[in-house]
Amino acid sequence: MAKKITMSAIKEDAKNLAGQLKGKIGIPIKNAFPIEVFPTQIQEIILELNKYLKFPIDFSGVSILYATSLSVGNTHKVKVNNGWSESCVIYTCLVGRAGTNKSHPLSFAIKPIMEKDKESYQKFLLEKEIYLQASSISKKEREEKGLDEPTPPILQKFLISDYTPEAVSTIHLNNRRGIGVYIDELAGWFKNFNRYNKGSEQEQWLSNWSGKPIISDRKTGNSVYIDSPCISVIGTIQNDILEEISKDARDSNGFIDRILFAIPDQLQKEYWSEEEIPQETIENYNNIIGRLLDLQFDTATLESTLLPFSPTAKRILFDWQRFNTDKINNHPNDKVASMYSKLDVYIIRFSLILQMLSWACGEGGKTVIEENTMKSAILLTEYFRINAEKVHKVLSESTPFDRLPKDKQQIYEALPKGNFQTHIGIKIAENLGMKERSFKNWLNDSNLFIKVSYGNYERVF
Question: Based on the domain organization, do 273 and 384 belong to the same domain?
Fold first, then answer.
């Protein structure tokens, strides 16, 4: 019978890898992020970003995970069992105070992808000009000259920042390989969920994370069907507005559970370094991401290459899943247990991201998920478990009032602090833009209101 792989053994392996790297490069690893999960080349890049540009290791590491996820897209998936495969979609959030270098590591990580989008846009503009010129010729002239009917060009891009829900579907339809949402201030992403369609966009992002097909039929546009959506998300948020993410029921509908948080311990703004980062470091990173962007995806069949787990890697995964299941079943807090359950999916996705990154660095293959990759995926998963627990602690210490959107906070504060009658509350709410039925339904929230008697209520806060 094979020996069971324990968590302590996996961590010991990782420590040995980290010790080898530290001795080679001579830079101490200060942050909690398990940098040893990455191929050696990526570790060196992250450490040099930290040394020369003062990028926090956590932020660089998570940003590179996102860039890898986006670059691989639908080209490859990991096969768990017959009928069950996972893409490398991740939703990520970098958390830190203003001025602590959240945005710069992210900009560095996605720059090769943005450069590719820039090239695509220039090509699109040129093709559009040719199309417009061809369209100016009459049908009769085209027939006389033996010219085909001009076809309008299509812009293929990877990254989007400002968009409508319909635009996401259209852009993804033009790039079935996969796209990514990049928003510097993630709080803005949440606030815009209801800008176009009340509540529906948030539900769509829940479905996108799970890989459910996108089916869109709008009066203003064509029907869209995307069988295998692949949309990763990344953004930043400041510690003092972290509670924004829990509003609109996101702390109870599983939305927050889908977000991977990077919250470095004792994060502080650092002095600039007068030394220049070696150009070779930048070029090495660009080349690695470039290899992933060059992966082929058959737009005719839309079939992904499936990577199975090696027998040992699969045994490690299933050992960990039993470990995680016990933590879920034994945890007294349902919200924490729910968050743990999403790690079952994320660990599989991490294994794919890390395996493909290993291949791009010339340190692994891309036919199976290897044993060392699986061990690294476990370390990465446990890192995000710790950070999710940090976020849960912050949110659990905030009140239901703190988690209300600003418009509802304004209405709540306008209500009398003592006993008030329903018709008084309705009048106040209507003056501030809330409909009568919505207000009456809101009164049933026992976290915010106490029903004193029929038609009489009190605020909790």
Answer: yes
Q: Are 36 and 17 in contact (CB under 8 A)?
A: yes
Domain co-membership, 432 together with 390: no
Residues 434 and 331 in one domain: no
CA distance 317 to 368: 14
27-82: pLDDT as tens digits: 444 447 999 999 999 999 999 999 999 999 999 999 999 999 999 999 999 999 99
Residues 6+ apart with CB under 8 A from 433: 407
Mean pLDDT of the chain: 88
Does residue 203 lie within any of the structural domains? Answer: no
Confidence of residue 19 (pLDDT cuts 50, 70, 90): very low
Give the Cβ contact number of residue 404 at 10 Å.
21
Continuous H helices in 136-244: 139-145, 165-174, 186-191, 200-210
Within a domain: 311:
yes
Are both 440 and 373 inside the same structural domain? no
Is 375 inside any structural domain?
yes
Torsion over CA: 392, 398, 403, 406 (sign): negative
Tell me the average pLDDT across 199-209: 83
Token pair of 245 as six digits: 């993410």
Where does 6-143 show beta strands of DSSP type E? Answer: 76-81, 84-86, 91-95
β-pairing, 179-185 vs 159-160, is parallel
**What secondary structure letter does DSSP report for 309?**
B
| pTM for this entry | 0.82
List 85's β-bridge partners, or say none. Answer: 79
Q: Which of 396, 422, 441 is the last residue of a domain?
A: 396
What CA–CA distance (Å, rounded) separates 412 from 409?
5
Tell whether the model's pLDDT for residue 426 goes beyond 80.
Answer: yes
Q: What is the mean pLDDT of residues 408-423?
A: 93
Alpha carbons 206 and 79: distance in angstroms, whole number: 22
Over the Cα atoms of the chain, what is R_g?
Answer: 25
